[in-house]
Amino acid sequence: MSGKKIVEKAAKTIDWDGMSKLLISDNARKEFFNLRRAYEEVKRTLDTKFSQLKEAKEAEQRSLQESERLEKEIAKIQELKKKITTMTADEYFAQYPELKAKFDEEIKNDNWGY
Q1: How far out from the chain centre does Cα 25 lie?
Q2: Residue 13 confidence (pLDDT) above 90
Q3: pTM of the model
């Protein structure tokens, strides 16, 4: 069982109001109040830590996904680098149709890049 589940279970099973009704002396009530306050402080700290842990795991997952995407992009660029010296314009534009469309549009508008 994870730490967060244990804390949640403990919080659900503590009957603070019921226990406070059983206390007779003022000293016992004072100690009980301090105990409850300390418990709430620890619970708040743990909730914050678990929240941060969850955020860190999500950030790590996003980072891993980005790393995978970049590795694929690097592999693709390295492959293109190997082929670029013998590649025809048609082969290049087949891999990058959006550039073909942009290139055709520039020619159509008589924009030769200067």
Answers
A1: 50
A2: no
A3: 0.47
